[in-house]
Amino acid sequence: GDKAFAQFLTDEIQEEKKIQKHKSLPKVSGGWELEVHGTEAKLVRKIAGEKITVTFNTNNSIPPSAEEDTQEQQKPDEQEPELTSTPNFVVEVIKDDTKQTLVLDCHFPEDEIGHEGEEESDIFTIREVSFQPTGEGDWKDTNYTLNTDSLDWALYDHLMDFLADRGVDNTFADELVELSTALEHQEYIKFLEDLKSFVKCQ
């Protein structure tokens, strides 16, 4: 059984490498620096007096509906639909002269992906906003967190503009999806390779 499993994995790895779009990771425009630790990625950008970091994790970032459909209707020779990784991401804005960090928790609404028609609509939304003490590892649940569900639209628009002024806009979000998808695929191939060596190990 293990032999067949290892053979299957070898084929699978070859297939996945064939469809791998990016041999090296796609860049995010706008002077962002990328750090990757396993499935967690961090983009950092410094502008006058501020540091902006965007953190996301590729685990569980592929919407479930895409996967279920492929299982049922898949014909052997058919090209699998492309899986896209749309992770939640956290934007932190740190001003040099304050002890507080503004934290904006953003996500890609599932029904928005793929609606090309509406030019003006944002492809990501801000879910929560809070202040956290700068430089502390653990954020406090006791800090007030503003949930945007019940938020005044004008205030919400200002928050979106605030992000856009710092380079976090639709273009950035598109590039983040592209980067995250490439990272996720890379991790998946690495996982298959690790699994193969694990299975072959007698």
UniProtKB/TrEMBL annotation:
Belongs to the MAM33 family. The keyword Nucleus applies. One of its GO terms (cellular component) is mitochondrial matrix. It comes from Dicaeum eximium. Transmembrane segments: none annotated. It is found in: Cell membrane; Cytoplasm; Mitochondrion matrix; Nucleus, Nucleolus. GO terms for biological process: apoptotic process; complement activation, classical pathway; cytosolic ribosome assembly; DNA damage response; innate immune response; mRNA processing; negative regulation of mRNA splicing, via spliceosome; regulation of complement activation. Keywords: Acetylation, Adaptive immunity, Apoptosis, Cell membrane, Complement pathway, Cytoplasm, DNA damage, Immunity, Innate immunity, Membrane, Mitochondrion, mRNA processing, mRNA splicing, Nucleus, Phosphoprotein, Secreted, Transcription, Transcription regulation, Transit peptide. Its main location: membrane. This is Complement component 1 Q subcomponent-binding protein, mitochondrial. It is a peripheral membrane protein. GO terms for molecular function: complement component C1q complex binding; kininogen binding; transcription corepressor activity. Residues 55-87 are annotated as: Disordered. InterPro entries: MAM33, MAM33_sf.
